[in-house]
Amino acid sequence: MTTGQTRKPLTELDPAALDARIQQLEARHQQLQARKLKLDLTRGKPATEQLDLSNDLDGILKGDYRLADGSDARNYGGLRGIPEARQLGAELLGTRAEVVMAGGNSSLTLMYQIVTTALNNGLWGPGSSWRASTGGKPVRFLCPAPGYDRHFAICEALGIEMIPVDIGPDGPDVAQLTELVSADPTIKGIWCVPKYANPTGCTYSDEVVRGLAALPKSAGEHFLVLWDNAYAVHHLQSPGDELSDLMAAAEAAGTADQVVMFSSTSKITFAGAGVAFLASSENVLKQFERQLGFATIGPDKVNQLRHVRFLSGRIDEHMRQHAELVKPKFDAVLAQLQSDLAGLDIASWTEPRGGYFISFDCRPGLAREIVRLAGEAGVTLTPAGATWPYGKDPQDSNIRLAPTFPSLSDVEAATEVFTLCVELASARQLRAG
Ligand SMILES: Cc1ncc(COP(=O)(O)O)c(C=O)c1O
Fold first, then answer.
1. pLDDT (mean) for 132-157
2. In this predicted model, what pLDDT tens digit does every residue of 361-376 receive, in sequence order?
3. Contact 184/224 with Cβ under 8 angstroms?
4. Is the dihedral of CA 231, 232, 234, 237 positive or negative?
């Protein structure tokens, strides 16, 4: 988290100096509006040049659809995915192929299916559904915040109540989590993005991973740790962060039936046309497979095989090429934040070592206003509040910046507008007292 120390804090300016500064900033804001910019810092998706890195997926099979076990990838069957793809998923998730299922194109779909199965059918045998075990009370989830809006949307769609919990540079506070789950058996799960978290960029420490593996022991029946390792290999520097193996820690703690890990190649190859993975205990995989079998005969094994042939043995090199494209954009945002806002005592932000986002915190009560001002000047930002359950940031202070998709020059132009809006909103708030 950077706060900077180089300029006179805005918080120390007297009213006359603040008025003068507000006038300058307003004039600049008006000039920017006249430029009719149309820039977008909202989309956490790969840029076209990143997608181009995987164009060799097309045609890579050259008519050879045989798997190592002699079967034909083009035909029906194999709910757990092809063994080769399960091995690839194990590499991404840092675990063993035996506990991995390779699925369709989206890990978010797998998360939704796991949660609905746990809620309605149970993942632990007959009568184990969350609905049954809460005796009609709403199921509740712990949600480290700021976090990933689509996790929160799954809960909201399914009527699962969300409890925001703190997240720091090493991950959530395990003592706080333990206290909460011990006191309330209707808390049935927690969302985690353990590496280069969306949006803070933090990677959970070994101690936090061990604490989360043990958490189900303090919770009511059938608590689930949902481990969304979406950014497992998305380093911005070398060497990348190391995340310790949750599954090994859960096996050691006797909680392997209560962790489910997810990942996908969405931001490795083609977003929307990749392969998703899930890992859990054999018990859970069997229960899940039973439900999945009502919905599909099997995943797209041809796409799985394409990914295996394309990525095997070269994930690191491929991700290095991604980083070459992505890092200059992160550097541009961070340099602009530093030069425009450092030392003003009005904001702080993360400096991620990987992933897709920078998490920015302004003075309480200003996030919505900053997003509005940026919108007036032609820069679309992720709506304030989106990183919190129910879209409600209690401090109205967090803004998620997503620099990967626009061109470098657009990222630079958008960040300049952003910092201006941050300073303008802050100066006006300080002046109003
Ligand atoms: C934390 C996280 N999980 C999952 C996803 C989506 O993954 P998929 O494309 O595999 O559904 C995203 C996409 O932004 C994400 O940030």
1. 96
2. 999 999 999 999 999 9
3. no
4. positive
Q: Which two tokens stand for residue 213?
A: 């593996």
Q: What is the pLDDT of residue 19?
A: 97
Coil, strand or helix: which one is 45?
coil
Name the residue range of residue 293's domain.
67-313
Q: What is the rounded average pLDDT for all residues in the chain?
A: 96
* Residues 325 and 298 placed together within one structural domain of the fold: no
Could you tell which of 108, 112, 114, 193 is best to mutate to test the pocket of ligand 1, judged by most ligand atoms within 8 Å of the CB? 108
- Any atom of ligand 1 within 6 Å of the Cβ of 230: yes
58 inside domain: no
> What distance in angstroms lies between residue 19's CA and the mean position of ligand 1's atoms?
44
- Average pLDDT value for residue range 129-134: 94
Which ligand 1 atom sits nearest the alpha carbon of residue 197?
1
Tell me, in angstroms, the distance from the centre of ligand 1 to residue 108's CA: 6
CATH number, position 134:
3.40.640.10
This prediction has a pTM of: 0.96
Q: How many distinct structural domains can be found in the chain?
A: 2
Share of the chain above pLDDT 90, in %: 94
Q: Distance of alpha carbon 393 from its chain centroid, rounded?
A: 17
